[in-house]
Amino acid sequence: MREKSCSPIISTTMFALFAFAIAFAFLTADFAAASQKANGNAEAEGLEYVAVVNDKKIPMEEFEQNIDMVKSSYDEMGFRLEDHQLDELKKIILDSLIEKELLLQESEARGIQIDPAVVEAEIDKIKNDFPDAAGFEQRIEEMGYTLDFLRSEIRSNMTIEALIEQELASKVTVSEEDIKSFYDANTEKFRTPERIRARHILIGNASGERTKIEEIRNSIQNGADFQELAKEHSDCPSGQNGGDLGYFTRGQMVAPFEDAAFALEIGDVSDVVETRFGYHIIRLEDRQAEETKPLEDVRDTIAKEIRRQGVASRLQPYITSLKQKYTVEIMLPGFQ
Residue 94: which of 44, 141, 135, 27 has the closest Cα? Predict the structure, then answer.
């Protein structure tokens, strides 16, 4: 059994749409207390907007919505923000909203427009992440937003992406030498460790259960169907899938289970294995040897990563140039 249970997959697309440019660096930032805050909260009461970018006002409501959204995301992950962390979060959100507006205004100045049909196609993709339309609408409502807001955010993000592609990405060149150098320096990233696929039957370690698991193993040795016995007897949720645990590598399972599973040959059934979860019988289904993907197989992936890094290194200087081009006035007390 795995040391840690699997967590549900969160739609990164949805998160990205609602958390534009709220840097993930916030998780690893130096959370020094924000000394500028002092009287900020009192002075901010009644303020209608937090900043002005070239005469375009950024509403306080939008600022607060973003704060609430990110706080909710951290709450869902079980991460409680301390006061000084919340101050840092506010600064990051304020900066991100200003930078977003700068990029949007520059996009408009350069005549960049997004076809509405492309926006609707992206919404359809997001809807496909949900079992039905009701689930999609419920999630939007839970986050305190509307479909029109989502549509607006998608259009804004696509507009900014188009600007970045035009002004930054298009200027990043990736040579064959660059790709080869990256591959040589990061070979470990392209190594796939040995992994196996196994099924198991788990019986709890209460009194008398050792006898039960031995009886099940004897039935298997006498030709009984492993998958059917897993469905009938296993105390692990995987029993519903015939005990299938999928593929896993070393380090993902508790040691006694892992040692027994990796020692098997394909098709073999283990002796009874005891772990802190109970008693197991394991059958090895498949084994894939360790391998390092050849350069040809990862060439496109490397090229995209080099390009991404190239854009990332150019983005902040580009935003700085826009701050010099456009007037930016921060109205939020304590953050000027």
Answer: 44
CA distance 197 to 126: 32
DSSP state of 55: T
Distance of CA 57 to the CA centre of its chain: 32
Q: 275 by DSSP, 3-state: which?
A: strand
C-beta neighbour count of 199 within 10 angstroms = 23
Could you state, in order of their start, the residue ranges of all structural domains in the chain?
12-173+303-330, 194-289
Q: Class assignment of domain 194-289?
A: alpha beta
Task: Decide if 108 contacts 332 (C-beta within 8 A).
Answer: no
The predicted model scores a pTM of 0.63
Three-state secondary-structure class, residue 37: coil
For every residue of 121-138, DSSP letters joined together read: HHHHHHHTTSSSHHHHHH
C-alpha distances out from residue 129 to 90, 135, 136, 143, Å: 30, 9, 8, 16
**Residue with the larger pLDDT of the pair 145 and 277:** 277
Class of 12-173+303-330 in CATH: mainly alpha
Q: Give per-residue pLDDT as tens, 58-105.
A: 999 989 988 888 888 788 777 888 888 888 899 999 999 999 999 999
Q: Is 105 helix (H, G, I), strand (E, B) or coil?
A: helix
